[in-house]
Write a structure and sequence with these properties.
Chain lengths: 267, 308
Amino acid sequence: MIFVDEKNKALKITAIAYNTFRESVRDRVLYNLVLFVALIVAAASVIGRIAVGQEAKIIIDVGLSATSVFGLLIAIFIGIGLVSKEIEKRTVAVILSKPVRRSQFILGKYFGLCLTLLVNTTAMAAAVALALIFAKGGFDAAQLALWPAAYLIFLELAVMTAVALLFSCFSTPALSALFTLLIFLIGRWSPDLKLFAETADSAATRIVSRALYHLLPNLASFNFINEAAYGESVPARLLAGNTVYAICYVAALLAVAVLIFDRRNFK
Amino acid sequence: MSVIEVENLTQDYLTGFWRKRSVRALDSLSLQIASGEVFGLLGPNGAGKTTTFKILLGLIRPTTGSAWILGSAIDDVAMRRRIGYLPEQPYFYDYLTAREFLLYCGALCDLPKTEAAERADKLLHQVGLADSADKQLRKFSKGMLQRVGLAQALIHDPEVLFLDEPMSGLDPLGRREVRDFVVGLRAQGKTIFFSSHILADVEAMCDRVAILNKGRLIESGKLSEILKAHSNELEVVVSGVTEPALAEIRSLALSISASPDNARIRLKDDRDLARMLELTHAAGGRIVSVNPVRESLEDLFVREVKGS
């Protein structure tokens, strides 16, 4: 009986996730961006021809940067509407009046957008890989560096989706977008924040910056694009460490999101 | 045993941005709804009908008070497998087709895929949407969305139904269809709790009603009892009575409305009836009908709402 219950819970989360994924696919989120990255990669190949010998570097650099930027745009702009849109349009009342826990709803929405991002990131990385094959006229060692770097991009997007979803549970879309973007920027510059925390003159500034450094996501270590462009593969330790860090960080954010969402009234 | 039991439910909202003010949306509401009953919640806009529904469905937590559905507390998620809800002015995922939406709802109610597909087909047929099953909901009219709403509320064959303003936005034909549909559900033994301000629909469907105004229950009971308690008056329709005779009848009547064909005379009770009939015959008139005035729900509603 307990097993059946657990299975039903998982099935409901899957149903909500699949519906969220289906929404973004039908809103043509994926098509436009895949097309866009294809154009960018094509442009990179042209530049590669001008800068002979640098093709792989430029293709990976431009391709993965675009993957990261467009993924981030999806994570933020769909993420901030994940919950707030359902509340605003009152579809949340239909779902929660069924035998669905609020935590299942939040998890389903989260995994649905993660699935969209996974498909998106994979498609973009595949486009970069294809462009590499074209530029190099076959398999190249740079291919090996590409995929782990793309995986780190996905992990970073998964963290940002959780940030956007958390804001989506209690704030307006415009404010949520602003806060999420701010957290992303601070997260990307977290080593500078750490440095600032160590060197600031005032004790209060040091405490606040140190607290922020520990509280906000450390995203700098997810950015391995530059190294990948030089053919450097992500060390296994960094991959494993970042995976664990992302899972813990996302779990904490989702727990807070569930706590907030659980207390909400849907007038 | 009561299927729905509501005890002293009170809901306060805070409004205002700077200076928060508490507004009471629901004030100590108590109700019992028996198995197989069709119970109507009546009241003007803002009376607290939707708030009551949302509390019962776990969408709003009451400030104080408690409620049980089918013997379970309202925050029991598993209990919701046995209830269905049609929200007011339903809006659903417009990128889904009607069938996809029903299958999604089926999955959320633990229905196996094949069973959900069968139920979806059957319900789409029952609500008259079989031809539009594979159309996206963004192309649906308000009336069609209302039908999809009914179908999703029934996808898991619940025992208890909560219908919030099920007739709103429907044309007369659509209202008739929904009414027949609800009557059919009652015949299946389902308990139906619905809200409305369209009184004719309530009159046609309900076993019992409760009237809410400004969050307070002002009357509840069997419709026939609520209406009977306020009516002793008679309405007599006569024809062929000339103006001089009518002047004499007027002294007996509460009111007279005369048209070229006939006159409608309202009497306080049957004590003056014999005298009135006499006067009519003497004037060469003809009695068309004599009926007890059954207070319409409209009258009752207006009187109660104004009085409270």
